[in-house]
Amino acid sequence: MRIALGVEYAGTDFCGWQIQSHSRTVQEELQKAISIVANHSVEIYAAGRTDTGVHALNQVIHFDSDSIRADRGWLLGINANLPKDINVTWVRLVDAEFHARFTAVERSYRYLILNRLSRSAVHHKRMWWHYPALDEKLMQAAADQLVGKHDYSAFRASECQARSPIKTVDKISVTRHQDCIAIDVVARSFLHHMVRNLVGVMVAIGDQSKPVEWAGQVLRSADRSKGGITSPADGLYLVDVRYPEEYSIPSVSGFPVLW
């Protein structure tokens, strides 16, 4: 049987998603917990890899097993063997054609910024604290230049292993609620550090260090050295992954923000 799971995790104390020999990772913790419940070793596959410090509300994974368990048994059994910063939220039996990564048709990320003079004890490692004043309207004007099908080489990390820098970004929206700014980015797939690099450019325009037209100039340059900083991992969340309707994969029920 092929089983899909929805997973949420706080990425603060993990060295990213992918198993590494020297560090604690989300994949390793999940594989250990699932293998205990399945009573055999399993290998899991995810919708996408997240970096050190990046969080997830609805990371989708799948694994294969011959063990018979009710959905409730899988969910409660796996969670009982997971640390407090990882949790399975739903379980679905899927057919063998389903693949958590390759069947996905859309991925949604949200980046959170705390924009005020004082730092936050509550939101530490959950938002990027950026104290210079940000103009969300300027940030949206910058974002509008970055939507569409483009060569995103200027927003690509040097260690990115993607075959092509050509991606299609369907949506970038910037919203503010009091001291909090949320940047939502939706696309089928992303380059390594792409969202964090997009945010870096938008913030430089939002605090008026750069003019609005700079966003388009960076994009057209296809040169990472022409871009802005890579924003911290703390504020980034993999919010949701969408699949064809026939798989009935649940969507996330809420966003990691206070409105």
From TrEMBL:
Residues annotated for substrate binding in this entry: Y109
InterPro entries on file: PsdUridine_synth_cat_dom_sf, PsdUridine_synth_TruA, PsdUridine_synth_TruA_a/b_dom, PsdUridine_synth_TruA_C, TruA/RsuA/RluB/E/F_N
Record bears the keyword DNA-binding: no
Gene Ontology biological-process entries: tRNA pseudouridine synthesis
Keyword Isomerase recorded: yes
EC main group: isomerase
Gene Ontology terms for molecular function: RNA binding; tRNA pseudouridine(38-40) synthase activity
Keywords of the record: Isomerase, tRNA processing
EC number: 5.4.99.12
Annotated catalysed reactions: uridine(38/39/40) in tRNA = pseudouridine(38/39/40) in tRNA
Positions annotated as active site in the UniProt record: D51
Coiled-coil ranges from the UniProt annotation: none
Gene3D superfamilies (UniProt xref): Pseudouridine synthase I, catalytic domain, C-terminal subdomain, Pseudouridine synthase I, catalytic domain, N-terminal subdomain
Superkingdom to which the source organism belongs: Bacteria
Function: Formation of pseudouridine at positions 38, 39 and 40 in the anticodon stem and loop of transfer RNAs.
PANTHER family assigned: PSEUDOURIDYLATE SYNTHASE (PTHR11142), TRNA PSEUDOURIDINE SYNTHASE-LIKE 1 (PTHR11142:SF0)
Family: Belongs to the tRNA pseudouridine synthase TruA family.
SUBUNIT field: Homodimer.
Name of the protein in its database record: tRNA pseudouridine synthase A
Organism of origin: Methylophaga aminisulfidivorans
Organism placement in taxonomy: Bacteria, Pseudomonadati, Pseudomonadota, Gammaproteobacteria, Thiotrichales
